[in-house]
Amino acid sequence: MNSHTIASLVPAILLALAGTLSAGEFESIFDGKTLDGWKALDMSYWSVEDGAITAESTPQHPCTSNQFLVWQGGDVADFELKLKFRVTGNGCNSGVQFRSRIRPDGLAVGYQADIYQSGPYLGGVCDELHSRKGPELLTGNGKRTVIDETGKRTATDLEGMATMRPPGEWNDYHITARGQHIVLRINGVTCSELIDREETHYDLKGILGLQLRSGDPMKVQFKEILLKQIATR
Question: I need a surface site. Which of 22, 93, 97, 99 has the fewest CB within 10 A?
């Protein structure tokens, strides 16, 4: 087999491996060099820079509709995800989509671990393009929220709140989802917790993706993306 043939098989091999992650082990789902195993409806915004998945909008190439780069290794259900991110511009507005679905127009519907410059959205859980009653922010930075079967939300304070590191520095995101219980941590601080029991609205399985937010020019980067699938009982 010549080198050209081997090179052509590498993306397919990586994708096959990505769909068979072992339960109970953290494994890298980004090779640090290419976008193999990741796909967006419009790939023109996405590249790899400085060993990181990079999404950028500019005045010459504006982002007029939210863009999502989706991991092609299959749906996630119960899992832990660890990654590093940094972002500039557009209010530092981005996020990690999980247990979601992608519409034909490329927009995501479902849970998002939010990224924002500060305030309740930083480290909060949003319901992107939600249809349920109430705000899209299901639980905010510094809050533990229980949503009962009827949609009633009860929020209490956590001990800490997330803050972003200075511009240019990398931030750590740690997302844990087990059944209807979701916990988000940023830079080592448990910043939001959600127990979502709302009938017909909570999601237990779906895609994993990264967001470039529409609006003003911005740049967001993600690296060292580690996923652990948790076996359900």
Answer: 22
Q: Who's near 29: CB < 8 A, 6+ residues apart?
A: 18, 21, 37, 71, 73, 225, 226, 227
The pLDDT value recorded for residue 24 is 78
Q: What is the CA angle 84-182-107, rounded to 5?
A: 70
Sequence-distant (6+) residues with CB within 8 A of 104 are none
Half-sphere exposure (Cβ direction) of 62: Cα atoms closer than 13 Å: 7
The first and second tokens of residue 190, run together, are 């448990």
Computed from CA positions of residues 91, 102, 209, 200, in that sequence, does the dihedral angle turn out positive or negative? positive
| pLDDT at residue 8 is higher than 60 | no
Read off the DSSP letter of residue 100: E
C-alpha 109/C-alpha 160 separation (Å) is 28
Average per-residue pLDDT for the chain: 91
212 within 8 A of 55, measured Cβ to Cβ? yes
**Backbone φ and ψ of 230, nearest 5°:** -105, 120
Distances (CA, A) of 77 to 81, 136, 163: 12, 21, 28
Q: How far apart are CA 136 and CA 121, in angstroms?
A: 10
Q: Please state the pTM of the whole predicted model.
A: 0.89
Partners of 172 in beta bridges: 84
